Amino acid sequence: MKAVSGILLMADLASILQQHNLRKTKFRIELLQLFSETTSSLTAEEIKKRVGKTNDKVTIYRALDAFEKSGLIHKVPDKSNLTRYAMCHTNCSAHAHIDNHAHFICTECNETFCMDEIEVPKMKQHGDFQIKTSNLTLEGNCPKCI
Amino acid sequence: MKAVSGILLMADLASILQQHNLRKTKFRIELLQLFSETTSSLTAEEIKKRVGKTNDKVTIYRALDAFEKSGLIHKVPDKSNLTRYAMCHTNCSAHAHIDNHAHFICTECNETFCMDEIEVPKMKQHGDFQIKTSNLTLEGNCPKCI
DNA sequence: TAATAAACGCAACTCAGTTGCTTTAATGTG
DNA sequence: CACATTAAAGCAACTGAGTTGCGTTTATTA
Question: CATH assignment of A10-145?
């Protein structure tokens, strides 16, 4: 599978689905593209807004579930009661640096931003805790919503 | 307020509530004690089970809300759709809520731990982004699940 | 192109958390 | 202590994210 450092071609997206035993439906290709374009996390509601078609929420939830089971995306911890998903950049490419920066979520417009300049403190071990992944999430107001 | 590094005496619990302009009701003293005894985070459901009395869920939610506003406890990021709360072991107040430590989530047992020693890089501004809260979440295996 | 199973879509449901409003009880003052 | 005040408790009804069941559509494969 190709590195997911930006927008993927339609052909790549389709073949990624195929490689994960998922059918190449119009919606799932669109959804995968959305995730490949989005450096931070997404909620089902955000997906519904961004994907042009008026898809049923059940379709979205089942697609997210299927994508997660296939290892394409993963749940992201959140303080609200919303489930957030993000693309597995580390698993899907050799570019480990991609998820090594902070993510900013605007509490007004819910837009998510990639803070490339802010690095996440990386550590593997802390006491008897074995750390596998680290996540630095910043919340507040984006330039548009101040 | 004293550091809450272990089990507190009934008198301490009551005075802590008083200092935060919260009334010393039987339930809230019990709830505060439960938090002081618990090193990891708690959900409303877990609280309902552990607190002896059959309290209304609304009472629990409102107490959690009041405790959070007073800086006694804070929300903890979680991957499920449950809201988790943990006690602020550091000095927190309504004015300056200090919650700048990392949280560790065990991917095996789903238990959440406050890593008081690991500080979250604090910043208020980054470019045109106004940062209100920062969240550093670590995932992996806790000592029990290695 | 027909068979088949995955994905879609609709309706109805679950369940954590919320809101409104009334009652109870903690606290402060005389 | 008695009373006034107001936070907290308690009940009912609601909200909204996410789920389940089931019939229909469509991508795949033989």
Answer: 1.10.10.10
